[in-house]
Amino acid sequence: MRRAILFMPIAMFAAPLAAQALENHNANAPVDVEADRIEVQDRQDRAVFSGNVKVRQAGLALDAARLTVSYAGGPGQGVDIERLDAAGGVVVRSATETARGQYAIYDLNSRQITMLGGVSLEQRGNRINGGRLVIDLDTGRATVDGRSSAPAGSGIEGGTGGRVTGRFTVPQRNDQ
């Protein structure tokens, strides 16, 4: 019983952080990409961007060392982006949140961003750390767990010993 009482304040502080992460992002907006280099692999329906990659979509920004864009379509049909795979110091930002990790997968069809490898999510002075972060762009719900599911052989661990850690701001009170 005492254990539940001790953890209750943490849950109350954590709820606002997770509840609003990138809520109502327009995943249908155009995706702008810039990088030092691009390699188009038409037979595999993908393009690989490398070197100082910057992605912008509506109010969302994603920066990474490397980005693979998977798309559907063909000659004369146009290109429909389905998925973005980012690697190397990935940072995802909106006006109020910043998420960091070693890898990120942005699935435009499911409207989810999954980040792996020593992730952190910061919002209004609050910060959560873990191994994996999943953000639902429709609801804004963010889930952080302590274990990472990074690609095999990557050497990326959660960075938090398999646990989620956090630091939350506390409103300043005037003691009189």
UniProtKB/TrEMBL annotation:
Give start-end of the signal peptide.
1-21
Q: Where is the Organic solvent tolerance-like N-terminal domain?
A: 33-140
Q: Name one GO molecular function term.
A: glycolipid transfer activity
According to the record, the residues making up region (Disordered) are 144-176
Which regions are flagged for Gly residues bias? Answer: 155-164
What does the entry give for GO biological process? lipopolysaccharide transport
Keywords linked to the UniProt accession? Signal
A Pfam cross-reference name: LptD_N
Which PANTHER family did the record assign? LIPOPOLYSACCHARIDE EXPORT SYSTEM PROTEIN LPTA
The name of this protein is OstA family protein
What organism is the protein native to? Sphingomonas gilva
